[in-house]
Specification:
With 173 residues, the protein is α+β, with helices and mostly antiparallel strands. The protein folds into 3 domains: 37 residues, no CATH class; 63 residues, no CATH class; 73 residues, no CATH class. Strands 3, 4, 5, 6, 7 and 8 form a 6-stranded antiparallel beta sheet that branches. A hairpin with a 5-residue loop joins strand 4 and strand 5. Helix 2 packs across helix 3 and helix 2 crosses helix 4. The longest helix is centred in the middle third of the chain and has 17 residues.
């Protein structure tokens, strides 16, 4: 039997993300079929409480929430638990991040989010930073940082080179 028929049967009738993953790992031809499939990556995250899939627009009792996991961009994409809607939601989220200049990382660029934040007056404040993504502006990577002072929350974008010279691996679609 032709590999294309097998892959279409597997992914069209078994709709869990595990089937999609297995189809991608089957062989090079199978991976190419899955990778070149047309996905709906035009959705973007927003604040919602709906039980409707933002990809296929169907009501579903077991709706899944894909939360943006950055402090730079907030929102979530609701989607069905099937692989097509899940992959489309992930691709949409990555595309939305990219349009906003936010670069998602394959792994955190440092082991914890505690950091020293340089201040404009030359001092340094203890704070936290986002280790899962970076902001790309004017050919420079920036880290989203935040600290508290006198009960107020402050944020600042610090060049990544302040912390490390190593550029982490990015997630690509």
């Amino acid at each position: 039997m032709d590999i294309q028929i097998i892959v279409h049967i597997v992914v069209d009738y078994f709709t869990t993300i595990q089937q999609w993953y297995i189809a991608r790992r089957l062989c090079r031809g199978s991976k190419e079929l899955i990778t070149t499939k047309k996905y709906n990556d035009s959705c973007f995250g927003k604040c919602t409480v709906a039980k409707q899939c933002m990809i296929c627009q169907h009501q579903h009792p077991d709706i899944v929430w894909l939360h943006y996991n950055s402090e730079t961009i907030q929102g979530q994409i609701t989607h069905c638990p099937n692989w097509y809607c899940r992959v489309s939601a992930l691709r949409s989220m990555i595309k939305h991040y990219k349009e906003k200049g936010c670069v998602l990382l394959k792994s955190p660029w440092r082991p914890n989010n505690d950091c020293q934040i340089p201040r404009s007056d030359g001092s340094v404040s203890d704070g936290t930073c986002d280790t899962r993504c970076l902001l790309w502006r004017h050919n420079v990577y920036y880290v989203h940082t935040g600290w508290q002072y006198n009960g107020q929350l402050y944020t600042k974008y610090v060049p990544l080179t302040y912390y490390t010279e190593k550029i982490p691996q990015q997630i690509c679609i």
